[in-house]
User: Which sequence fits this backbone?
């Protein structure tokens, strides 16, 4: 079983929809990252969470340490949000373990 | 600032050939990383450098070597390329090694080994 599981693997939405991407992990962690990989391949860090919730523009990330679960929400989705969203956890070895990503397509 | 730059962007090798992937950052970061990304799998850490002059193995180091030439540059070498090394390679950097710090990624190098 992978340490980090993301769901769904693929997601298609209509512009304006509220989107949720989930990340579950099986080990104790001290922090969790959400990253965005653009269609051209570039990777950008969105959030780093160790507890609670963070918001940046239309993006909201939450984490529940007890349940070993994090969610990334996108409000009022737009075609430019189309990308692969990647969850990564900071494990006991102090290195990041990455999930396989969720491919999001937002249609106009 | 260019951030993290990588060269080349694309490369095709034959089995057994060698090559070096170059990475440089202009953010004065202490720590640098090399990852590979394969279809259906998450990014996996190959090697990292906590600071200038130090390097350590990550999750998948076999078949690779690295050099932290100076604070700015961190290169990845394939001595004898194999088809299993066909992948997209990303270099990243962060201010400190502890991974609560934001990592900044380069644009990637797409490598095909025939």
Assistant:
């Amino acid at each position: 079983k992978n340490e980090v599981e993301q769901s769904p693997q693929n997601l298609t939405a209509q512009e304006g929809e509220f989107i949720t991407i989930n990340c579950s992990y099986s080990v104790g962690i001290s922090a969790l990252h959400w990253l965005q990989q653009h269609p051209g391949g570039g990777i950008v860090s969105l959030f780093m969470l160790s507890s609670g919730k963070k918001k940046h523009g239309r993006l909201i990330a939450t984490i529940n340490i007890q349940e070993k679960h994090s969610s990334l929400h996108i409000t009022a989705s737009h075609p430019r949000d189309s990308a692969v969203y990647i969850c990564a956890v900071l494990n006991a070895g102090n290195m990041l373990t990455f999930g396989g990503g969720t491919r999001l397509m937002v249609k106009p | 600032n260019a951030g993290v730059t990588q060269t080349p962007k694309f490369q095709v090798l034959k089995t057994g050939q060698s090559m070096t992937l170059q990475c440089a950052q202009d953010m004065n970061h202490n720590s640098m990383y090399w990852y590979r990304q394969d279809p259906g799998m998450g990014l996996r850490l190959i090697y990292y450098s906590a600071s200038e002059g130090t390097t350590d193995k990550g999750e998948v180091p076999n078949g690779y070597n690295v050099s932290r030439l100076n604070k700015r540059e961190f290169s990845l070498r394939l001595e004898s390329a194999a088809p299993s090394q066909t992948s997209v390679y990303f270099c990243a950097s962060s201010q400190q090694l502890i991974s609560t710090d934001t990592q900044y990624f380069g644009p990637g190098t797409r490598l095909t080994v025939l």
Chain A has a mean pLDDT of 92. Chain A has no helices and eleven strands. The radius of gyration of chain A is 13 Å. Chain A touches chain B at residues 2, 4, 30-31, 33, 40-45, 48, 50, 86, 88, 90, 94-101 (CB under 8 Å).
